[in-house]
Design goal:
The complex is a heterodimer.
Chain A lengths: L2 H18 L4 E17 L2 E19 L2 E7 L4 H15 L22 E3 L7 H13 L8 E19 L4 E17 L8 E8 L15 H11 L9 E7 L5 H10 L2 H5 L20 E3 L22 E5 L2 E2 L6 H6 L12 E3 L6 H5 L4 E13 L5 E12 L2 E14 H6 L1 E4 L9 E2 L3 E9 L2
Parallel strand pairs in A: 4-6, 8-13, 12-17
Antiparallel strand pairs in A: 1-2, 1-5, 2-3, 5-6, 6-7, 8-18, 9-10, 9-12, 10-11, 13-14, 14-15, 15-18, 16-18
Chain B lengths: L2 H16 L6 E17 L2 E19 L2 E7 L4 H11 L16 E2 L17 H18 L3 E19 L3 E20 L2 E11 L8 H18 L8 E7 L6 H11 L1 H5 L20 E4 L20 E6 L2 E2 L6 H6 L8 E2 L8 E2 L3 E4 L6 H6 L3 E13 L5 E13 L2 E14 H6 L1 E4 L4 E3 L4 E3 L3 E3 L1 E4 L2 E8 L4
Parallel strand pairs in B: 4-6, 8-15, 14-22
Antiparallel strand pairs in B: 1-2, 1-5, 2-3, 5-6, 6-7, 8-23, 9-10, 9-14, 10-11, 12-13, 15-16, 16-17, 17-23, 18-23, 19-22, 20-21
Classes of the chains: A alpha+beta, B alpha+beta.
Chain lengths: ~450, ~475
């Protein structure tokens, strides 16, 4: 039996058992995963890993009450006991009238999502690929201390069903490799940096494509550029945030748009729907149905159909991320529980182009810790990067902190580049902000 | 036949299979975990979850190299396939290792369960959450929302290895966390508090609920008068308890010996050298009874123990798993830990803390003309090679002319590990282990705890207004 048929059968059985044991309604998600991993340290294979697993998660609606149970033991006897215990527990809880299945008119009804490579890659091929990557730089740069190259591939099958007749299926693959280099810096310091590639096919990362591996050289170049960093004087600076880390600044906005934060009054975007919350440069689209792109999905975890939506349009907040539960509690319409494939509208140029707009500023290439208070929007992040002077990216800086409030930060967005990485599910180009507070010397 | 019995019967066969292509060492790690949680939201305990999972991880080590595979199946053919997959790492080697006869380790019991979670129904747990909710709402009219989550997990672990060691462990974990949102005059603030121990149902008692309610009320109230501080370099007094995050981030990770083995830690070449002032001793401890980081045995069959990483200012030990211990020709320190059977073990911290010094907190504060006092934290991070670490401060005070003055909140503090260590110029005699839900991430999550007496760090970079 094909994996997708097996999962559908498991879901049907679990639903039948749930209803038989006393659930009024139920939703079931069954997944099956195959994953392989491999790593090379310097010039030799260090680890090889293989994972095969499955899971079954049941959402149980029992006499107006709600609970979940899950297991990786999907045999009938194990499920029988799990359901008995779970349903007995749910019956003891307080009722929750807001818990419901996805309304039929909002659920996904289309064909399965197939965003997958049809074959697999031989272990020897992966090993040779990874060794080639690492050996391209190993022993070729005196300052290089170590190079770690990691490869992983992953295939997931999912079937989602509920007792109202919902059936959604997906099959996805993902291939990824990354390289991290550590080099000798000043004194005892050993700065490091990384690069990665990902895609749904092996050739997206270079396997079988005949294209050279570029990640190792990029990682090494970046690590070398970080040697001998300085701390500069505290002040307000114009700042570029590099494409591959700009999503860090987007995450607090998304958290603050989630139903769980909003319903608990724990969001700095409470009562801001329809208002301008950012500079007009910021337009953010959730575009979930781009097949072959990370983040692509046709339905969310409860079966709500995804759709293309403008989350923020020219700085105006257009939507919250509301599951059926939080929508019911907030007396609003459900949208989707979380974003899928976020695209920040691009402008022109890359980080170097944006640097041309800076006389005295900072180019942030990485965040080191920090956090954002979801209730107030106040944030403080450690950063690393480079000083920018008269349009040129110059020496590396470190041990500095960027501080402010999210609403103020995004109102200071001046420009976006056109260099978003297509291998990320949140595709953010390099961003230019004006007059941001940095603490250093 | 359950998984444990099945593995006991054929562990030797699986170990032989795992080592069929060569290699120095192999182990089998079996885990069966049951997890429960209930959630209070909007005044009602109206969500519960139950999760159970189990599986077998098989590892083959050849020098510093590792082959790893796991299976969730109890079928012999699936377990044998996992062993064959793990054996791939040693393909082509001439070295052959024969598994030794199995003997079971006698272990202490650092987390004896008085009341097992199995059979402890939601009906018995719910009153504690309602009590917590009631105490918080009744204490302050500004309270708008309270959410609380009570979770418990019990893991049964069996480990067999080719050295002939068999060990088993039953590991409970109980956690209660609460978040409070208050509103006053249009200003809204939220804060959280938590407790976590390796305990059974005896974890739940009224005194703990009272303490937690007061703590989250105090923390949330405090924020109304607090503001983000002015930023820059300044002396920082770190209060006793959760300040142990400084040790975890600034040095703990860099002492995990896999980083030293790969030569990517800033402390790689510092063994036996002075790295901070005399009088400073830093420990990673798996022996504190019922502590979140306590271990009877680690996840590769090494007994839980207390490891002195820094003794009187000298770096005396890294944190080792079996692979790094072999590389450095020393004994493993019981730090080989893993998130679950799905992961291979890595050197990980347990409860990391600093021994008491001779100062008092009052004296440390009094010695600072202009600086910061910090006492609650949420998260941290470190760059192992560069040594730069950060931790996020939820609350504290300005220090002005030796006195605590303006309350502060939401600032990230950044420093360099070796430099920050060398700048610890005062250690108080009030060490506290923080019993919150500390969780460390290193590709895999791991329950840990941390502790600290109050210390004065002569200079760190504080994020803030400029």
């Amino acid at each position: 039996m094909k994996q997708k048929d097996l999962l559908k059968q498991m879901c049907s059985y679990a639903l039948e058992m749930s209803l038989k044991k006393g659930a009024t309604h139920a939703r079931v998600a069954a997944t099956s995963n195959n994953a392989n991993g491999m790593s090379v340290l310097n010039d030799s294979l260090e680890t090889i890993e293989k994972a095969v697993d499955s899971s079954l998660t049941l959402h149980l609606f029992v006499e107006g009450r709600y609970g979940t149970c899950s297991t990786n033991k999907v045999d009938p006897s194990g499920l029988d006991k799990l359901l008995d215990d779970a349903i007995a527990s749910v019956k003891l809880l307080a009722p929750d009238p807001f818990r419901k299945l996805v309304p039929k008119e909002l659920r996904y009804e289309g064909p399965p999502l197939y965003s997958a490579h049809s074959g697999s890659v031989d272990t020897g091929v992966k090993k040779a690929f990874l060794l080639d990557c690492a050996c391209a730089i190993w022993n070729k740069e005196p300052a290089l201390i170590s190079v770690m190259a990691d490869y992983s591939d992953h295939r997931q099958w999912l079937h989602l069903a509920d007792s109202d007749g919902l059936h959604c299926t997906s099959e996805e693959t993902w291939y990824n490799y990354s390289v991290e280099c550590t080099v000798r810096g000043k004194g005892d310091a050993r700065p490091s940096d990384w690069d990665f590639q990902g895609g749904i096919h092996p050739w997206d990362i270079g396997i079988g494509s005949g294209l050279p591996c570029t990640c190792a050289a990029t990682a090494l170049e970046r690590a070398l550029a970080k040697r001998n960093p300085r701390k500069i004087v505290s002040g307000r600076y114009r700042v570029i945030v590099e494409n591959r880390v700009a999503a860090t600044l987007l995450a607090p906005l998304i958290d603050a748009m989630s139903g769980s934060s909003l319903q608990q009054q724990n969001s700095f975007l409470l009562d801001k729907l329809g208002e301008n919350i950012a500079s007009s440069v910021l337009t953010l689209i959730d575009d979930p149905r781009r097949k072959g792109t990370p983040g692509c999905r046709f339905f969310d975890s409860e079966g709500l159909a995804t759709a293309k939506r403008a989350v923020i349009e020219a700085g105006r907040l257009n939507m919250y991320f509301l599951s059926t539960y939080y929508a019911e509690k907030m007396q609003m319409h459900p949208t989707i529980s979380s974003p899928s494939l976020l695209l920040l509208k691009e402008g022109k140029g890359n980080a170097a182009t944006l640097a041309g707009l800076i006389k005295n500023g900072i180019f942030v290439t990485g965040f080191n810790g920090g956090n954002c208070n979801t209730t107030t929007g106040d944030f403080s992040y450690g950063i690393e990067g480079f000083y920018v002077e008269h349009g040129q990216i110059t020496y590396p800086i470190n041990e500095m902190v960027m501080t402010g409030n999210m609403l103020d930060l995004w109102s200071r967005l001046l420009a976006a580049g056109d260099d978003a990485l297509k291998t990320m599910s949140w595709q953010t180009p390099s961003l230019l902000f004006d007059d941001i507070e940095f603490s250093g010397l | 036949m359950d998984l444990t019995t099945a593995i006991e019967m054929d562990s030797k066969k699986l170990l032989n299979l795992a080592l069929q292509q060569g290699g120095d060492y192999a182990d089998l790690y079996m885990q069966q975990t049951t997890f429960h949680s209930i959630v209070l939201r909007d005044g009602e305990v109206n969500a519960a979850s139950t999760h159970n999972e189990g599986g077998l991880g098989i590892r083959v080590v050849s020098g510093q190299n590792t082959g790893y595979a796991y299976t969730e199946s109890t079928l012999p053919r699936d377990r044998e396939e996992a062993a064959r997959t793990a054996s791939y790492i040693a393909q082509g080697l001439i070295r052959r290792t024969k598994p030794a006869p199995i003997a079971t380790l006698n272990l202490p019991d650092r987390y004896r369960i008085v009341r097992p979670w199995e059979g402890f129904s939601p009906q018995e747990k719910m009153p504690f959450l309602y009590d917590l909710n009631e105490r918080i709402f009744s204490a302050d009219k500004r309270v708008e929302k309270v959410t609380a989550q009570l979770s418990d997990a019990t893991s049964h672990i069996e480990c067999y290895n080719s050295l002939g060691i068999h060990c088993s462990d039953i590991r409970p974990m109980a956690s209660l966390s609460v978040t409070c949102v208050m509103e006053s005059g249009g200003q809204r603030e939220s804060a959280s508090a938590s407790r976590s121990f390796r305990m059974g149902g005896e974890f739940l008692h009224s005194a703990m609920i009272r303490e937690l309610a007061q703590e989250v009320l105090d923390r949330t109230s405090f924020l109304f008068g607090a503001k983000q501080p002015n930023g820059g370099e300044m002396p920082v007094v770190m209060a006793a308890g959760g300040s142990g995050i400084l040790l975890h981030e600034a040095i703990g990770h860099a002492f995990e010996a896999d980083f030293a083995r790969k030569k990517v830690s800033i402390f790689s070449d510092k063994m036996g050298q002075r790295i901070c002032n005399p009088g400073i001793t830093v420990i990673d401890d798996g022996t504190i009874p019922c502590n979140r980081g306590a271990l009877n045995v680690d996840d590769e069959g090494v007994p839980g123990q207390k490891t002195y990483m820094v003794t009187d200012g000298i770096l005396t030990s890294f944190l080792h798993d079996r692979i790094s211990a072999g590389y450095f020709h020393t004994e493993p320190t019981g730090n080989g830990r893993r998130e679950s059977f799905r992961c291979m073990p890595l050197p990980r911290m347990r409860a990391t803390y600093m021994d008491n010094g001779r100062d008092t907190e009052e004296a440390l504060i009094a010695s600072v003309k202009k600086g910061l006092y910090v006492d609650t934290f949420s998260n941290g991070q470190v760059q192992i090679g560069a040594g730069d670490f950060t931790f996020y401060v939820k609350s504290g005070y300005l220090i002005e002319n030796g006195k605590l003055t303006q309350p502060i909140k939401d600032t990230n503090i950044i420093g360099n590990g070796p430099e920050a260590l060398a700048r610890i110029t005062g250690v108080a005699n009030n060490c506290i282990i923080d019993n919150g839900t500390w969780t460390c991430g290193k590709g895999q999550t791991c329950a840990v705890s941390c502790g600290m007496p109050s210390v004065l760090v002569a200079s760190l970079t504080v994020g803030g207004r400029v």
